[in-house]
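Batch 3, record 17
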Amino acid sequence: MGRVTGRLKVDGRLKHLLVAHYRDAYLARRLRRPLAWVSSGAPVELLHAMGIFPVYPENYAAVCASRRMAVELAEAAEAAGYSPDLCSYARTSIGSMLAQRGPLNGLPLPAPDLLFAASNICGVVVKWWEVAARHFRVPLFILDVPFLAERLTPHQVEYVRRQLEEAVAFFGRHAGRRLSSRSLSRVLRLSAEAVRLWNEVQLMRRAVPSPISALDTFTNLFPMVTLRGTRACVGYLRGLHREVAGRVARGEGPVREERYRLVWDNIAIWYAFGFMRYFTERGASFVGETYTWAWGEYEFGPDDLRDPLGSLATQYSRVILNVDLGQRLDRLLRMVEGQRADGVVFHSCRSCKTYSLGQLTLAREVQSRLGVPTLVLEADMADARAWAEQSARTRVDAFLELLEGRRKG
Amino acid sequence: MMPAIGLDIGSMTTKAVVVEGASVRARVMIPTGSVPRRAAGQAYREALRQAGLQGEPPAVVTGYGRLDVPFAARRVTEITCHAVGARFLFPEARTVVDVGGQDSKVIRLSTDGRVLDFVMNDRCAAGTGRFLEVMAAALGLSLEELGPASARATRELTISSLCTVFAESEVISNLAAGEAREDIVAALHRAIARRVHGLASRVGLEPEVVFTGGVALNAGVVRELERLVGRRLLVPAEPQFTGALGAALLAETGGTP
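Prediction for the assembled complex:
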């Protein structure tokens, strides 16, 4: 039996990183550093390499949600006419823009000098960024990434690569920065190192008991999303890697007696971390999440440095929300088997249609191909109005009873 | 075998069942009211009295109020209890459709009776007993009158709204337009059956299908659901006791689901 361990020690540094990141963002203008709003699926490495400071409205919306401020900001957007059926990240971000307030010292996200979004995660970001472009009257670059059905074709890569060349020229024009191949190589190496460390941490969760659970990875995802391509990110991940490896060596984990090993599909429910602890208290560990795993997919090998833009085009075409259901299923099945999971929890996220459509098919396939049971929970990543915790707990209880029946059976 | 007791604290009613061996010795149903633990205590004592039992046998408690019952020996979800109860009544059961006062659920079972998958609707009143209660009130009928009324329907109307509040206003405008109450009731039964069938299709409707919960007492809903499923449903004689029965059976074996 494993020993119980609470929060990771590196979490203390994480808070520091988050505060420093947003402090730098608010100071960017004073430091004459151009600031860009960037979507989660955009190749941020270009911005780092050009000395442009990136902030993520999606991450900011998640911060708003975890600090219980997303609903009132979403309501501000709804009062301005944005539909409640729109993505809650978009409503939170737009609401914060319009109401000029937010959770970090009461401030909204600092105004951008330019905007950069990629269509590889959804269609909403494109419209959302257009709203921001009109609101702030700043230039917008949209990277159009074709949906990847079955396999990536050379002309698709070429199509995205050429747009990246345009993006470099665009950033140069509007931010007054140039791209040197040396700095891009350096950023890509740092990005690759972060991805390597992150993936190793994820694979360590194959251990019994799993050294960490979903709460840890959802929290520790911040540097991977926001600081990927920087030294700070690599430094942080080394610490995380060391601590998790130590836990594995000592047989420690967050669960007193690990009875169930689960996989999570879709974005975290940022305002309901107490609910995630409910799993841990009942002996269930999460050994993988398709969502946190997604940031481990940007793998840049030494070969990629020869054609960095082509490599970025390839990597950013393969993101989880830009591939067909068959490829998503393959990744999910590999995770369930590889991490020795015995159940999958699907968060059917009201906001994220791209992620949630097809989950019933995935669930059916997981059941029939692996004989692994599945559970669907309806929620939303940021809008707590779509969440009923008590009934969700009953479903979790029923699911764990089902898993217990299999253990005995 | 020692007698054993199960309690199902539902949103509307609290049920208690005492079993001994393969037979039911007592069953009690009372309104849950606003204090589930009080209803639980009352149902517990009454069931033991009816069964003529002394002492305080440990109770397995299920239903939405299960967390509020301090004397529960064990708490088990409705999913597991309905599966156990339905399988006891109908060993050939592979799917359980339960429509209670405030939720509906569909459970798929393996050949040996284990729960394989389940879905619940607990976000919306459409497709629950509450839907029928609201409509009965709007029509000036009692719940018990709905089933027989729909059997006299002659014209096919459609209630299209999936929302209880809007469906109620559809009922009122149909009444105002002079439509027969019987036809409106039949349309409501089709609406709830469509909703439940949609939910059931998500886990698959493997035969035999057992229909439990208070709404299974309504012959009109049973008929419409059978039409959608395309086969006969197995309905227990007292479908609203299935969860409490399952709880009692779990108390008796002391085993896991």
